[in-house]
Amino acid sequence: MIDLAQLLTSQFKITQADLDKAKSYQNRYDGRLEQILVNMGCLTEEDLAPLYSQLLGYPLFVPDKYPSWQLPDFTELSTLQEFKALDCLLIGEVDGVWLLACKDPLSLNLAQYLQRYDTNFEIFVATESQLQTYFYEIQSHTESNIDDDELTGDEEARLRELASEAPTVNLLNSLITKALARGASDMHLEPHKGHFRVRYRIDGVLHEVDKLAPKMQLPITTRLKILSGMDIAEKRRPQDGKIEMRIANQELDIRVSALPLNDGESIVLRFLLKESIRYDMSVLGLSNDTQHLIQEDLKKTTGVILLTGPTGSGKTTTLYTFLNELNRPNVKIITLEDPVEYQLEGVNQVQVNNEIGFNFAAGLRSIVRQDPDIIMVGEIRDAETARIALQSALTGHLVFSTVHTNDAASAYTRLLDLGVEEFLLNAALVSVVAQRLARRLCQHCATPLEGAQTLFDKYPIEEVALNAGIEINIKQPVGCEQCNHTGFKGRIAINEYLSCDDTIKQIPKNDQFISKAKEHNQKLKRRNLMQDGLYKVITGVTTIDEVLRVAG
């Protein structure tokens, strides 16, 4: 048998320090080493199946690879409950040999159960989510359907009971734990082609990871609604909620959104992990010249610095990074956000509440009476908020905010459309930074791109390299264990910087402004979004396909 400790350190990346800590706990309180590591958050429940497979030599349970496999015909639920208690499932019989898929092949209870039968067994190692999927599928043949549209008192009570049963709780925890282990920012649960599909958004891209039985949709959806404070009987209108929980030794805030569909509800979970975010300029991935320009702007004591880009382009993280650079004991910083996603130590963060009329404009009027040095407004959505923010900059405040536009110059036209006067824009704006997020190449497995010369004819790669004074080092994704075989790990900012200098102020803010502003930036050899993306391609940080996806 393979040595467990050696397997944990070599194949599952457990550090010697964590292993020693787990062994010390084991010596004092007993217990299984791998289970202690799960409780410590060093291993996930999903890691246990491949761990036992390698340790004991049992094959992994992969239903799709067994075309003859069928759900056993359980006629009595007591039999099913017996298997559920053992975390195993009878998956078939071949020449008198029982085929068993089990979560924990080292379980003493399982060994005692098998000794009761005078037969041979072949063990397959399954994950928690696999077992729960098939338990529900079996149960669906023996339990009556609950009406999805109208719930009586008894049905609602039964639904709450289903949602609180161990299989539902364990499966949901397993899905969330797996999402965190893979670095997902969101988890999508939605009905799709007769299944309940599970997808993770990792580095901005959705990946399908599981297909659950249709019967699992209602218990899982109900549990999420209960945890997030939603109405479980309401299935006809969208709902939003929030969950605070601890999973895999991590404190976790989850924003939950439920949206009615034709064949059920789509549930989206956004994970907010405080310890996973580093508000550091070096982490953003700003180009050296752009970072230098922004840091010069951060030295100013008055004016407005705007970030632009679509939802999910990292604007809030970038603004938090700017605030972190300026956060000192002699500076008062107040933010106005909807919602407050992450806590910043030493910063006064205010939550907008539209239900009581406390919107961005009302909040901003209150903030300026609090004698702040720096103000951050989560988003400029209306004329009043825009006007107060810009006027605050003229009265001695440094103001940060965001607007939704495609590029930096369009921020001017967006604010003009909201009714802001041109003279106020010219007087208050310091700079505008447009941003997108591209996936970062995994630094463990990326290799130089062969035939990179073919890209030179299609894109101005040599021109960008020459203007920036950098060498061309284009790389391609490969895939390894570090990046879940995607070739990418993490994301990097692609930016366009527009300084609101005297030349920009003198350009009339008419339909010719955007093109003239871009010409001015090109004369200063400042890159647009596409060119900054190429800069990141040239330096081997991302790929041309990623740049075209987010900035093309």
Layout of helices and strands, plus pairs?
Elements: H1 4-11, H2 16-29, H3 33-40, H4 45-56, H5 77-86, E1 88-94, E2 97-102, H6 108-115, E3 120-125, H7 128-139, H8 153-164, H9 166-181, E4 184-192, E5 195-202, E6 205-212, H10 217-227, E7 239-247, E8 250-261, E9 264-272, H11 281-284, H12 288-298, E10 303-308, H13 315-326, E11 333-337, E12 348-351, H14 360-367, E13 374-377, H15 383-394, E14 398-403, H16 410-417, H17 422-428, E15 429-441, E16 447-448, H18 453-456, H19 461-468, E17 475-476, E18 488-499, H20 502-506, H21 513-523, H22 529-538, H23 544-551
Parallel strand pairs: 2-3, 10-14, 10-15, 11-12, 11-13, 13-14
Antiparallel strand pairs: 1-2, 4-5, 4-9, 5-6, 7-8, 8-9, 15-18, 16-17
Give the proportion of residues in helices.
Answer: 25-40%
* Strand percentage: 15-25%
- Unreliable stretches (pLDDT < 50, length at least 5) are 74-78, 141-149
Total number of helices: 23
* Major sheet details: 7 strands, mixed
- Average pLDDT confidence is 85
Task: Decide which structural class fits the backbone.
Answer: alpha/beta
Radius of gyration: 28 Å
Termini separation (Å)?
Answer: 54 Å
